[in-house]
Structure formats: C-alpha cells, structure tokens
Structures
1.
Amino acid sequence: MAKILKIYPENPQENLIQEVVKTLDNGGLIIYPSDTVYALGCNIFDIKAMEKLAQIKGVKLEKAYFSIICNDLSHLSEFSRPIDTATFRLLKHYLPGPFTFILEANKTLPLAYKGQKTIGIRVPDHPIPQLIVSRLGHPIASTSIKDDDDVIEYTTDPELIAEKYDHLVDIVIDSGYGDNKASTIVDLTQGEPEVVREGKGNFED
C-alpha cells in the first residue's frame, strides 16, 4: 500500500524529502509532482526498481525510454556525449523548465540504459523533484503518469493517482493538483533542434 506524503512546493519539509530519498535508495518507486504532470520515478542505478517501472508502463526495460531527471546540468557528462557551447547555452536558457531534451548517449550509462543511443534529460522547474535529486545525490528515472481516458490524457488529481497506483508504488507525493500538459520534447541529436512533441514549454530557438 502506497504511503501518501503531503509535500508542498512553498515549504517542502526536509524530513519528508529524506523519507522519499530513503525509499528510492531502498529500491522503491515514487509518484511525484513536477512543473508539468505527475510522474513515476525510481533510482536510476537500481535495476530491479527500473524493471518494476517498465512493468507498470507495460514495456520491456530494454525498450523503455525513461527520462533522466536532474536538478541542474552538472550530471550531463555522466549520461550524454560531449556537447558544444551553443547546445550548452541552449540548455541553460530553457532549463529548469517544462522541456525534455534528447541528447546523444555516452557509453557509461547506468545498466538499465545500456545500448540506448539517445537519452532524454529533464530539469523540472519545481522544488520537490529538485530537492529529491539533490538529496539523493544523483538523477532519477522517470515517466509521466497517463490517464486511461482518451480525452483527459494526464491525471491531475493526486488522490485519484494514489488510488490507481496504491499497490504499485511505495510513496505518492500529494502536492495539490498537477498540470495536464506534458513537457515539450526537443531533439538535439540531428544538428538543428527539432520539436518532436509540443507540450507545456514554448520552444523558440
């Protein structure tokens, strides 16, 4: 049964953030708020947790392209190939923000990402995921929570999310209603930036 923690961005309690971090360290799965929609997350270096995340999404882990959630750009070199100055400036301009940037992956990716040619990097403009990643000491793997309803693509009510995922995750962070627009995805692997999904972020290169 998932534990519901009420953590609000205006005043996130350190003891509750630490409880989330401990859960991630122990291979648990969390549902957390972001600057876009609510998302599922886990420890990027815990292969069993990553497999659980893939199972919930109904995909095989080797075919699951989970975003990497960072609290700043300092972890880039751990996951992506070296980027040029113009690309770094672009990332600094848009992040933190409601964007996922696709970059070329390097060869030192965590085990669950091995063999992937590209990775999606997110730095949400939201204190809760930023604090979680900061206290954890490394990024988390993440995927948006979709709604079964074809019209309402993303569930915004954390109570409904907690009800649905009660036996699938360890912690649900209730931070009030979420957004119903996902991040804008921008591919930076082909030279010129290409918007592959229009979302909440307004990308103007």
2.
Amino acid sequence: MNPDDKSFFLDAMEDVQPLKRCADIHWQPSRNTRAREEVDNEQLDNFLTLDFLDVLPLEEPLVFRREGVQQGVIDKLRTGKYARQASLNLLRQPAERCRQMLYSFIRQAGRDGLRNLIIIHGKGREQNSHPNVVRSYLARWLTEFEDVQAFCVALPHHGGSGACYVSLRKSDEAKQENWERHAKRSR
C-alpha cells in the first residue's frame, strides 16, 4: 500500500465509529473434517420430513406453543424480551439444505445449553415463493423437535415475518442449577 492510499483511507475513515460488540452467535456448520463427519453421521438421524407440504398463507403468522408452556413465556418471546443466543440464516438455501442446517443448529443449540434462538427464513410476496415454502417447512419442522417449546414471528427490527424467535426447553443441567439456586434462597 503506498503512502497516498493509506492517507486517503485514513481521511475517509476519520469519522467512522466502531460497531458495538454483538453477543449473538451466528451459527455456521463446521468446516473441519472431523466435525463435518460428526454432522454427516448426525444427518443420518435427521427425522425432519420433506413430504407433501401445505404452504401456509402469507397472512398466517408462524406461532406455536407446546402444551404446558406459560402464556408469560410466549408474551416475552413475542416481544423480543429474551436475548437471542444464536441465529441461523436460511435465506436462498434449497429446502433440503435448510432441513439439514436446521437439524444441526437445533441439536447444537441443545448441546450448548442455549434457549433462545432466531431463525431467518425470508419472506416472499407470493404464496408459493421459495421463502414462503421454506417458512412453511420451518413451521412443520420446529414442531417435530421435542426441545422446541415455542416459536413466533420476530419483531420488525429482527426480520419481522421473515424471521422467527424459537424457545428451547431447559436442559437437565440448567433445571438442576435453577433448582439449587432457588433451594438456597428458600432456606
């Protein structure tokens, strides 16, 4: 880089402010061979189906609540009050690839003890557009995971109808830790 280029660059960047650190984890499948083999083996267990699908109408929001989940949890999820711990971007991916990515993402989130996720699926203007087909599959697939306790449409600044918040069940370790914390307080 010659001195004039560096000077020009520094002048252009003079008033730029650094971005704040983001705590979100943007999940990407592993590129190392051993981890990729584990993912490939995991995909053999992938129970998510690509069978016939009724495409959800565009005006029908993505929403699901497993029996026993309190309304307060759903309200906090819907209003974005839970910090998103990881995100998955399914934009412009074929349905089979979305199926594989979602399966690995939810499994990994469960292993990592994550509870609150966001999935970006996109939105189409037409009923049978690719983003709406992926959105419809996503609505089916998420209900097939026992660990998914609820999901709903994201707030507009997080993607609106092109994204959804997902709440996972607490891990056994987190339940035990929570129980111990509350047991100590009640003594």
3.
Amino acid sequence: MTETVDEHATRVFADHRELLFSVVYNMLGSVADTEDVLQETWLSWVARHRGRTDEIEHPRAYLVRIAVNQTLARRAVISRRRETYVGTWLPEPLVTDPPAGHGGEDAAAPALRAESVSMAMLVVLETLTPLERAVFVLHEVFGYPHTDIAEILGRSATATRPLAHRAREHVHARRPRCQVDPGVQRRVTEQFLTAQMDGDLAGLLALLATDVTFWSDGGGKQRAALRPVHGRDKVARLITSQVVLSHVPDFGVGYRFVNGDPSALILSAGAPFAVLVLDIDPSTARIKGIYAVANPDKLTRIDT
C-alpha cells in the first residue's frame, strides 16, 4: 500500500527524532523546551512535504537544520524567562533506568556515558553564546564537519571555525574530558547521602574536594540555595545544617542514571522530590560538584 504524504513525513521524522532530541536538548538543557522545538520542527517538516512534490535528498540534514535554527530562535524566549527565575537555574535532568544488561554499579553504555550530556557539562555549556554552543554541540558531540555546520547555520565555514575554537577552549578549560568509573560514582553517591542523612560533618568533609561547588535549583518552589556555594567547609556546613533530607516526608531514594551518570533520585511518598548528581574527580574520587534539582516543574517527566 502506497504511503500518503503525511504518513511518509511521519515515518521519516520518527526515524530521526532521537537524533533531533539529543541535538536540541544539548543546546537547551530543557526537556520541555526541546519537546516544543521538536513540535515546531515537525510542523515545518510536514508543511514542506505538503507544499512540494519533489523528494528531499538528505532528510537528516534538512531536519537537523530546521531543528537547530528553531532552537536558536527559542533562545531569546528562554533568556527572558531566566531573567525572572528564582535562584540558580540547572538543566532539566534526563533520568533513565540502567542500560539493558547493566546493574546499577556496572559500566553504562557509551551513549549514556557521553560527557556531552552530563549535568556538569551542560552547566558549562550554559556559559557559551547560543552560536558557540550550537557549533560545539554539532562539531564536538555529533561530529559534523565545519562545512556542514556552516550550511546548517547559514554562515561560511570560515566564520564557524573561530566559534568552534573559542567554544572548545572555553569548555575544555572548565571541563576536562575525563570520567569517573560508574561503580565509584554509585559508591560515592551512597556515601554522600548517608553522611548527609546522619549529619556527619567529618564524613562529608572526607568526601568533598577542597574546591567543591554546590548548585541547587528549587525554582522558588522548593528549598534551595539561591546562589552556588563554593568551598569544602561552606558546602559541608550548609548540607548538614540547612539542606537536609530528614524533613522530606516518607523519604526514599532510588539509584538511576541521570544524563548518563549513576545518580540519586530522592523520593517523597514515592514521588520524585529531587535529583542529585555528583561530579567526581576520577583521580581522587572526591566530589568536586554537587547538583541538586528540586524544582518540581523539572521532575514531572520522571517515571518512578
């Protein structure tokens, strides 16, 4: 049976949806905004098919170009929204079960372990300009050559190369490409939660790097520090005195993969209360970054 124009467009879009989601999410750090961009991309794609009879020779490239430019257009809306955001903004976590065939402490699939989508990397990417981030994601994460990136962005390859160089230097200076063993990640996360629950200041100090930073995102709807807190002593005191878990009703914890890293899903009466992601130095197994997302708007897509 011959496909209709809409059926063909739907099938091709579905074949590329996972790629499009990854590209857009890495550029925005928000699942909700990514879904909106994909909807706009889909509508543009369908309109293109309905309006013309000739076949698109390279649908993947065409769809990526639409999605990237829709994403760049959306950055202005997101920037205005951030101006009124209460406290520190963190990326919306992608929470998944352990990859098939892996236990919670085993190595994750390379795709899920990709540092490009880690919470720590996404925080660094937020410091780039929208164009720098687009070029970095397309080139460093997805391997697009500069000629293709130039075509996607409607610029020359000569103009995109300096963007790529600045973005790469900026990111690598703040986020060296190294990852901790998933088993170590899980063990340190468990030790951290135990010390926090027990109010064990000495135990926390032993786990934290000297220059550790604590980020918490409550969006003005949950208790959270309004600004990042730096330094081992300050972070440990804050965690044991103010940001405690003992006040969470019917507290529970599950260990899930968050943006590819073994992390903790904090539950209250069986519902998501917060996501905790630790950034661990692989050479020392000490915690150099703590990311706590408690804004309920960013937890609605998590299945428990």
4.
Amino acid sequence: MSRFALAPQWLVYLPPTMSPSETSSRADWLERPEEAFAYFRERGIPQVICEEKHMGSRAIVALCRNAQAARSRFGVSGDGTGAIWTRTGRSFFGDAAMTEGLLDRLRSSVDTAGLWEELQTDWLLLDAEIMPWSAKAGSLIESQYAPVATSSAAGLRLSREALARATARGVDAAALRTRFDDRAARVAKYATAWAPYAWPVLGVEDLQVAPFHLLASEGRVWFDQDHVWHMAQADRLVPRQGVVARTRWRMVDLADATACAEAAAWWEDLIGSGGEGIVVKARDFISRGKKGLIQPALKVRGREYLRIIYGPEYDAPDNLARLRERHLGGKRNLALSEFALGHEALKRFVAKQPLRRVHECVFAVLALESEPIDPRL
C-alpha cells in the first residue's frame, strides 16, 4: 500500500493469480486444453466450464447504484459511485472522469437487467477484463515488446544479408541461412502478436468490459453459485450496443471424449482468430478433492500470445524442450492461497466486520504477490 493505491475503503478484494495448465506433450505446443481437462478429470470433477480468455487487463469493479449507496456501504466521501482497481490495488484509470464514465455505462446495463431489485442490493462487486490491453499496457508495448521486435528484425536482416554475400562468394552457408530465415519468420510473428489487443482509447466509448464473476452484493458472497450461473449473469449485462462485451463459453462433460475434442477445436479456432486462449474451471466455484482445494481455474494460452510472454523464438525446438521443464508447483500454491484469502476477505466485508479485518486478507494477497514466482507462468 502506498500513495499510489486506491482509497482503502474500496479495497475489499483482490483476485487470485492463475496457473497455466500442465505442459503439452504434443509437438510444437506448449499449452493445450487436453492437459487442463486431464487435471480436473483426475481429481474427480465431472464437468468444466471453458471461458474465452480476453486479452485485456484484470479489473475489479465496485459498482454502486448511486453516490449515497457508495458512502453508506463503503464509507467513502465525495460523489463517486464506485471504483475500478487492478490486481495490485491501484486505481485502474488515472482519470476520475474515465472511471465514472465507465461506471455509468455499467450501471445502465445493470439497470436494464434488473439486478438491483432481483438481488436486493445497492452495490455489486464484479470481476472482469477491461480491453484493450493497450489501455494499461501501452507503455509496456512501447518500452519492452516493440524494441525487442525492432532490434531483432534489424539484427537478423543484417545477418541474412551477410550470409547471402558469403553464399555469393561460394561459401556453403545453406544450413545457416535456413536457420536464420526461420528465426526471422518467428520474429515477424512476434512483431504483430499484440496487434489484435491494441487500439486507441480516446474515451469511454473505446473501452470494452467483459465481466465473468459476480463476486458479492449486499448480504451475499456468490461463490456458492456455479460458473454456469455466473456466466448467465454476465450475459444479462451485455446490451445490443455498449461497453459490455460478451465472453464466449461452453460447458464440457469430461467423460465425453467427443465433447472434449470439440472444446479443443473451439480453442484452436479462438486462438487462430487472434484470441489469447481460454480459462478452464470446474463447474462449481469452489471444488475440493481428496487432497483439499482444487485449482479454481487453469489458463490455456495460444501460440502467438505465448510468443509475447516467452519471446520471439520460444517455440523453436530447443527452446520448447527447455520450457517443457517449467515447474508449476509454486504458482499453483500461490493461486490456491490467494483464492482462499479473497473469499475470506469478501465474507468479512459482507458480514460488515471492521475494515482492518478485511484488509488482513487483502494485504496478505499483496504480500504473496511479492513471492519470487516466474512471471511468465
């Protein structure tokens, strides 16, 4: 917590990190849905939900019906009608007008869906992705990813030109030229990998919000409802036109080999059209097996998104063999701890316990985020 953090009265929850699936054994792939299905199947989970993984930035939205509801329930001052924050507890937008503009549009969707009356509440806490990715990661693209693409392309161009001159002098450089041509092709893919996730944001109308969890409302934490229910509520918020985006999803029976194959083919279609991947979850929001709590979600990312994360040549045979040895144990333990702490924080908030009791859990999540876990996982 620092002067950069959100007003602490709003900060009643932070979402958990998410582990990837086990590494795929199939050639040329690092992640595929089959491993996620196997994880849940082996732990006795009969059905899973596969959700489209939007390439945006994770956001928690506290949405109040009006400013009075915000003041009375969250104890804030002023005329704000909610807050939007990141996984590290900072305000998502630096501009208060942008925040209120987005909250106003989300409130309109809730009004239309009739959720205030149905849930008997004046506030909602939503888990969502806000797009485009460049709205938060624009500086990261400019300072980290784009320079790598530019310098790699320039260096490989000079190398290939040198090899061409060597070949013209009679030097047998065919194998080396093939290798460098392959490297250049991978770099070209890297340079365009983030294009589907970046567009100019001049105002609220350029944003998209994809909610996927209704976390809490007055008197309720909604972890007792399964993911089918949560996705149904999210679908109700999608207007014909507006900032709320639909999250495509499907339920899969893990005992049905055809259904699993169709879900894997659906994932391939999503990533083939520029999508990041999918998130696979047990149908029940909280699932337990013989050894205790089961992972709440596993992400399965596509080839080109992984290229952004691991680098231009991550899928070259030698590199892929090394990446197959990645260890997921630390990430898995972190995800479970943060998930349990988030649930406890919400239960305490809904029970109207003192804010310091809620913050015991929230700050613990922040502390866990400082653990030395590979950030690419």
